[in-house]
Amino acid sequence: MLGWLIRTASSSIGKKALMALTGLLLIGFLVVHLAGNLTFYMDGDGAAFDSYAETLESNPLLPLAEFGLLVLFVTHIVLALRVTKQNRDARKSRYAVRATAGGSTAGSRSMVITGIVLLVFLVVHIMDFRLQNDGTESMAALVREELSAPLGAGLYAVAMLALGLHVSHAFKSAMQTLGCNHPKYTPLIEKVSLGLGIVLGLGFLSFPLVIFFLGGSAAGGQA
Ligand code: HEM
Questions:
Q1: 171 in a domain, yes or no?
Q2: Among 74, 166, 161, which Cα is nearest to 123's?
Q3: Residues enclosing ligand 1, CB less than 6 A?
Q4: How far is the centre of ligand 1, averaged over its atoms, from the C-alpha of 102 (Å)?
Q5: CATH code, domain carrying 119
Q6: Fewest beta carbons within 10 Å, which of 1, 28, 114, 169?
Q7: Would residue 6 count as lying in a domain?
Q8: 103 C-alpha to center of ligand 1: Å?
Q9: Domain membership flag for residue 30
């Protein structure tokens, strides 16, 4: 398995296919993560969100799921950096004649920029909600505290706009890399890609906006 992974990750096409696959799995994680986070809006005091977080944390399989998630994120990010470098090197070489054969397009440039914003966000996010939380504080209170500060809300808002843009391009790009390229299905795949970007981007963006401007009152904010 590890040998296969290393061999695949060292070929150019293999890198792109693994990036596409890990990207699609990460989109799956984001759909589940957003659905879980939406429990924040379910009641007035954040109890539903806290009980969701407690259920997650008490699941004995959580460390395994977290490890899997870590592997997905690290693989996706490392491959993205390597493919970007490969494309940049190819552009410098006289053999690179077509933008799509290793060059940069507006879409791929935006992926690099939004990807970097998301990487910074992810580090801050894990430190805020995963490492800082010792299990004694209410998760809803922690989220409210973080996103009611201008800096926290601002960072989350910018990152969630980047997330929307990243996903709206990512899904169709991954499907194409994995060979789903057909005149009949491509228009539908493009619509799904845009839809996912909008739903995930706006869904996650709602948290910094609601909490900052309404004090999280949709979920029992004390403001
Ligand atoms: C406003 C948007 C978001 C909010 C309010 C939010 C909230 C949270 C919370 C409260 C946790 C801790 C869960 C727990 O330990 O019980 C968490 C974990 C996490 N979030 Fe988010 N999240 C947001 C967006 C995102 C995005 C966009 C990503 C990915 C790009 C992401 C990736 C993660 C990861 C990887 C974890 C750690 C999961 C684990 O170790 O169990 N989150 N988030």
A1: yes
A2: 74
A3: 30, 33, 37, 53, 56-57, 66, 69, 118, 122, 125-126, 129-130, 139, 143, 156, 163, 204, 207-208
A4: 33
A5: 1.20.1300.10
A6: 1
A7: no
A8: 33
A9: yes
Structurally, the chain folds into a number of domains equal to 1
List % helix, strand, coil for the chain (3-state, nearest 5).
80, 0, 20
Stated pTM of the model: 0.89
Give me the pLDDT at residue 135, please. 66
Phi/psi of residue 60, each to 5°? -65, -20
What is the band of 58 on the pLDDT scale with cuts at 50, 70, 90? very high
The answer to the question of residue 80 being in a domain is: yes
Comparing CA positions, the residue from 154, 123, 165, 146 lying closest to residue 37 is 146
Q: What is the pLDDT of residue 94?
A: 55
- For residue 176, the model assigns a pLDDT of 95
Sequence-distant (6+) residues with CB within 8 A of 76 are 19, 22, 23, 26
Tens digits of residue pLDDT in 190-215 = 999 999 999 999 999 999 999 999 88
